[in-house]
Design brief:
The complex is a heterodimer of chains A (226) and B (619). Chain A is 29% helix and 12% strand. By secondary structure, chain A is an alpha+beta fold. Chain A has 3 domains: 77 residues, Ubiquitin-like (UB roll) (Roll), CATH 3.10.20; 43 residues, no CATH class; 86 residues, no CATH class. Chain A has a 5-stranded mixed β-sheet, sandwiched between helices. A two-stranded antiparallel ribbon of chain A has the order 6-7. In chain A, β1 and β2 form a beta hairpin. The radius of gyration of chain A is 19 Å and the shape is globular. About 7% of the residues of chain A have low confidence. Chain B is α/β, with parallel strands linked by helices and 619 residues long. Chain B has 5 domains: 127 residues, Glutaredoxin, CATH 3.40.30.10; 211 residues, NADH-ubiquinone oxidoreductase 51kDa subunit (Rossmann fold, 3-Layer(aba) Sandwich), CATH 3.40.50.11540; 84 residues, Ubiquitin-like (UB roll); 89 residues, de novo design (two linked rop proteins), CATH 1.20.1440.230; 56 residues, Alpha-Beta Plaits, CATH 3.30.70. Helices cover 40% and strands 14% of the residues of chain B. Chain B contains 24 helices and 19 strands. In chain B, the strands form 6 sheets. In chain B, strands 12-11-15-13-14 form a 5-stranded mixed β-sheet, sandwiched between helices. Classes of the chains: A alpha+beta (226), B alpha/beta (619). At the A-B interface, β4 and α2 of A face α18, α19 and α20 of B.
């Protein structure tokens, strides 16, 4: 067992857990975007930053979803530095997805109402990579990927050519935290199997059973019409 | 080729090679590095070969003509050095070759016009080592670059090559090797300065049989070419360092991750690997020691972020070059999940020197916490553009003025950008700061990999920072939010300021945003990307404010903020500017004072650069 202090509370946790796991177990709320309990942590959205304090070194911010619990660690999940940083990240996200209700709500939760910098075009894809990772880790087909880099980065099939791997299961659509992901849009020209094929229903059953739907979708059936 | 199977065998071979070298033999070394090649050094080299065979009948002396690695003084290329006399010729063209052969090589006479002229004293300098550019340097890693032909392993052997390896394999245990590297004080030359011996030890102490060593040769900073020159000019030294590292760590496989944009370095390195395998320095049972080590080259595909160690390993594995979070560190779980030790080209090249010249010698160079030499590619507004190797702790002033020859056209120095797009700029007032890891960090710059850009008084620091920000924004992999969107936001703000649309709180916004990007980005690229902006604000805040508050660019660079006009008192009506203006924005007849039409003017600066009477002003 590992002993550490989170928000002045002594915590005991088995080895191999992340700081975010520890926070979840002890009811400490940490905002996340790219984290999903069914997937490997990715460390991309940087909303889950927490501050770790060392007696001898200056304190620093780490992403709690990927940082392992270490013996004797002192963690603050809501210090001034953490709040400042999360607000800036939320502001940047808001500047890119300013018409996306989920992002607007997330920013508001962190106290950000307006973004000082706005991207010329709104894009509700926040590149959290959940769709890509779900396609790889849950469905196991790796039909989609993140292509290009920087602000040009986007979700697509590798090399933007027709993917013979896609089975049309739409796990990607379901797991998308902003509802932006549209399989048809990405693979429209590629003739993937349609939503109602027998094959895909099986997969849909898998994610319904394992509750992979995003938190904002109360009823999966509303998505079926897609 | 000869297969070397024991240290004694290596010594015999070396002795034979040294014996076969006539010290009196004339050796002509033509710089074959990329920048000299651009000036036509390859043609100069073949002209020498032809000329000598033509004049050969009349000659009584033997010659060697070599196309070597980078001599360093790129500003004066193509460079030719004639040894053993050490005569140093600059800007040599094909037309000069017959004269050099008949006059200098055969006749022993100096050709004055090809010698280097000291711009301060106006005197010519004959010997390479007397040229101020070389005189103040300490060339440990680059010492053989201008001497040996990288095509032949024999040349490296003659100069003691692979001697350190044979010493290490037979006289030292891996633990002793690590101890010696620790004692030498060598720190990572990739920029972060992590103690190399400690890194090796961490990797060695990891459980597991399979470990890897990687040479990071994905050099991508704008204006930096140290690693390329080492690999092109002396690839065997890098390999020797890697083999020693592999032995110390307990790794049998090494990778060199090198960017595809360096075709000649790839070629030279691959040839060196092949030769080393043939001679028994690589492969199984190296020199009969029982240690096996293989090296493979992996080519990068043009992503700057792949110089970051975790992204680099992803790329070697065949995945998208995106960094992954640390911990676990590569020494714990690196390439294919195995303990991996990554070092920069310069770090690897330093290793054979530590064992060849002795730990004490290496540890005695430099400052308390930064040992050995640092290599910089000095570019920008400086007289002696080139590759410079200096002891750690030398002052920037010595580096820029004694070695670099100062700023061209009598301009004043404004700032030095160290560490490329991850580094910061240091203003002229801090010129006496010693060049070492800690001192540079304190000033908001970093040692970095060795890029050094000199900015003179005509440089606009806002525009300068904008340039580096545009680079990092373009090269951000886009995985994490602060780097992807934050660098974009910073760049947009800088562009707005340069265009004259800056807002009063823009500077504070840049500082706030920059600090948050630094503290929360996933990898080193984002964590350092704001440095050029933050350091230029720290030292040149007045320039930012002039752009925003007064709508002027003090250096006269930002086109949105400047206008060109004619100073009537100075204008002679010579019509030179009028003829050169690409947009016909200047009117006026012969001996009439010219007038610039602000509407038509694109602020290209052509009129100002062609005017001989200083009659064009920029406001």
């Amino acid at each position: 067992m590992i002993h550490l202090t989170i928000d002045e509370k002594p915590i005991e946790i088995p080895e191999g857990r992340t700081l975010l796991d520890a926070c979840h177990e002890h009811g400490i709320h940490i905002p996340t975007l790219c984290y999903h309990h069914a997937l490997e942590p990715y460390g991309a959205c940087r909303l889950c930053m927490v501050e770790i304090l060392h007696p001898s070194q200056p304190s620093r911010l780490v992403a709690s979803c990927v940082y392992p619990c270490e013996e004797g660690l002192i963690v603050q999940t809501n210090s001034a530095a953490v709040q400042r940083n999360r607000r800036m990240t939320a502001e940047l996200l808001l500047g890119s997805a300013y018409n996306t209700p989920e992002i607007v709500a997330l920013a508001e939760e962190l106290g950000v109402k307006e973004a000082r910098f706005q991207m010329p075009e709104e894009d509700s894809c926040v590149l959290c990579g959940l769709c890509v990772r779900a396609c790889d880790e849950i469905v196991g087909v790796r039909a989609i990927s993140l292509i290009h880099r920087g602000v040009s980065k986007k979700v697509s099939t590798p090399f933007e050519v027709s993917s013979s791997s896609c089975i049309g299961c739409r796990t990607c659509e379901l797991i998308c935290p902003t509802g932006r992901f549209s399989l048809n849009e990405i693979t429209a020209f590629q003739g993937v199997p349609q939503w109602d094929s027998k094959y895909t229903r099986l997969y849909r059953q898998v994610f319904e059973d394992s509750d992979l739907r995003p938190y904002f979708v109360q009823d999966v059936s509303t998505l079926r019409e897609g | 080729m000869l297969k070397i199977d024991s240290p004694a065998h290596l010594d015999t071979w070396r002795a034979e090679l040294v014996d076969a070298t006539d010290p009196e033999r004339q050796r002509i070394a033509v710089c074959g590095d990329t920048s000299c090649r651009v000036y036509g050094s390859e043609k100069v080299w073949s002209a020498f070969t032809n000329e000598i065979s033509q004049q050969g009948v009349d000659c009584s002396v033997d010659y060697d003509v070599k196309l070597t690695g980078c001599h360093g003084f790129c500003e004066k290329g193509p460079l030719v050095v004639i040894r053993p006399q050490g005569i140093f010729y600059t800007h040599v063209g094909v037309k000069d070759v017959p004269e050099i052969v008949s006059e200098t090589v055969v006749g022993g006479r100096i050709i004055e016009r090809l010698l280097y002229t000291d711009p301060n004293s106006g005197e010519t300098i004959q010997q390479e080592e007397d040229v101020p550019f070389y005189k103040h340097q300490l060339r440990l890693i680059l010492n053989l670059n201008g001497i040996l032909d990288p095509s032949y392993i024999e040349e490296y052997i003659t100069f003691g090559g692979y001697g350190s390896l044979s010493q290490v394999l037979f006289a030292l245990t891996p633990e002793e090797v690590i101890e010696k590297v620790k004692m030498s004080g060598l720190r990572g030359r990739g920029g972060a300065g992590f103690p190399t011996g400690l890194k090796w030890e961490l990797c060695r102490n990891q459980p597991g049989d399979v470990k890897y060593v990687i040479c990071n040769a994905d050099e991508g900073d704008p204006g930096a070419y140290m690693d390329r020159s080492i690999m092109e000019g002396n690839p065997h030294r890098v390999l020797e360092g890697m083999i020693i590292g592999g032995y110390a760590i307990g790794a049998n496989h090494g990778y060199v991750y090198i960017r595809n944009e360096y075709p000649r370095a790839v070629k030279h390195l691959q040839r060196a690997i092949d030769q080393a395998e043939e001679c028994g320095f690589l492969g199984e049972n190296i020199l009969g020691s029982g240690f096996d080590f293989k090296v493979r080259i992996k080519l990068g595909s043009g992503a700057f972020v792949c110089g970051e160690e975790t992204a680099l390993m992803q790329s070697i594995e065949g995945r998208v070059g995106e960094p992954r979070p640390r911990p676990p560190y590569p020494t714990e779980s690196g390439l294919w999940g195995k303990p991996t030790n990554i070092n920069n080209v310069k770090s690897w090249a330093s290793v054979p020197i530590i064992f060849g010249k002795g730990v004490e010698l290496f540890a005695n160079i430099g400052t308390e916490n930064s040992k050995g030499t640092a290599i910089f590619s000095v570019v920008g507004n400086i007289n002696n553009t080139g590759l410079v190797e200096v002891p750690m702790g030398i002052s920037l002033r010595e580096l820029i003025f004694d070695i670099g020859g100062g700023i061209p056209n009598g301009k004043a120095l404004k700032a030095v950008q160290i560490g490329g797009p991850s580094g910061g700029c240091i203003p002229a007032k801090h010129l006496d700061v010693p060049v070492d890891y800690e001192s540079l960090n304190e000033l908001g710059a970093i040692m970095g990999s060795g890029g050094m850009v000199i900015a003179d008084e005509d440089t606009c620091m806002v525009d300068f920072a904008r340039y580096f920000m545009a680079f990092t924004q373009e090269e951000s992999c886009g995985k994490c939010v602060p780097c992807r969107l934050g660098t974009k936001a910073m760049l947009a703000t800088l562009e707005r300021i340069c265009a004259g649309d800056g807002q009063p709180d823009d500077v504070d916004y840049l500082i706030e945003l920059g600090n948050e990007i630094k503290s929360s980005s996933l990898c080193g690229l984002g964590q350092t990307a704001p440095n050029p902006v933050l350091s230029s604000i720290r030292y040149f805040r007045d320039e930012y404010e002039a752009h925003i508050m007064d709508a002027t660019c003090p250096a006269g660079v930002c086109k949105g903020l400047i206008t060109y006009s004619v100073i009537p008192e100075n204008c002679t009506g010579c019509m030179v500017c009028l003829r050169n203006c690409p947009t016909d924005a200047i009117s006026g007849g012969k001996q009439e004072i010219h007038v610039i039409d602000v509407e038509k003017c694109t602020r290209c600066g052509m009129c100002r650069s062609v005017c001989k009477f200083d009659a064009i002003k920029v406001i």
